[in-house]
Amino acid sequence: MSIKENLNKIKNTFSNPQCLLVAVSKTQPISAIKEAYDLGIRDFGENKVQEMLEKQAELPDDIRWHMIGHLQSNKVKYIAPFVHLIHGVDSLKLLKEINKQAEKVNRIIPCLLQIYIAKEESKFGLDENELEEIISGNEIQELKNIKISGLMGMATYTDDTIIVRKEFRGLYQLFTTLKNRMLPQNFEMKELSMGMSGDYNIAQEEGSTMVRIGTAIFGERNYK
Ligand SMILES: *Cc1c(COP(=O)(O)O)cnc(C)c1O
User: Fold this and answer.
1) What separation in angstroms does the CA of 120 have from each of 63, 117, 123, 154, 172?
2) Is 139 helix (H, G, I), strand (E, B) or coil?
3) Residue whose C-alpha is closest to residue 209's, from 191, 188, 189, 187
4) Ligand 1: does its nearest atom lie under 6 Å from the Cβ of 27?
5) Where are the domains of the chain?
6) Is any atom of ligand 1 closer than 6 Å to the C-beta of 24?
7) How many angstroms separate the alpha carbon of residue 24 from the centre of ligand 1?
8) Averaged over 101-113, what is the pLDDT?
9) Does the pTM of the predicted model rise above 0.85?
10) What is the band of 172 on the pLDDT scale with cuts at 50, 70, 90?
11) If you classify domain 3-218 with CATH, what class do you get?
12) Which atom of ligand 1 is the closest one to the Cα of 26?
């Protein structure tokens, strides 16, 4: 199937049409991104800084680039001038670096805190205690050049939809709890990034506001 057919199919199965589709273009060539762009997609997700930089330089300026991968502090400076949203922030140290680099380019960079919800050791993210430490600490208040716009999570990679649904539901509950609570000035809980090619329907049913979809749009990735 073509990118166009895939996109139509995906959009038609969205249980929440308001949910933002972030097209995950990692490992995909410029030509594939251009094709999706010409079909109206403006939000693209990459997980490597170098790759994002190369693509950003060649593609139209109105693309909103989402950093969805695990971001290293020493690379923040490269994407700070243009990145639209950083999804996977999992430490205060990284928040401080994003703030520092955002200040240099006179921006406020929106970030999502990645929460650990899966049963897999390999996945990144904060647990609830670490999240609490960040929220209630003094340092977060000083970071004027970031905005915490919400949470992000990845469910366990399994065919068991009951497990996946339970994990997404737990993240949504945490999200709503935070929404209803007094938070530092630079928090604005409005986005919940959850759902990928295999589980975006469940994620939407459980309250996702943005899904990150790669293979269902572009086909299998070719890791060279
Ligand atoms: C690669 C990736 C995706 C997209 O995965 P697909 O299964 O191809 O849709 C989503 N989120 C993150 C964080 C990723 O690294």
Assistant:
1) 33, 9, 6, 10, 19
2) helix
3) 191
4) no
5) 3-218
6) yes
7) 6
8) 98
9) yes
10) very high
11) alpha beta
12) 1
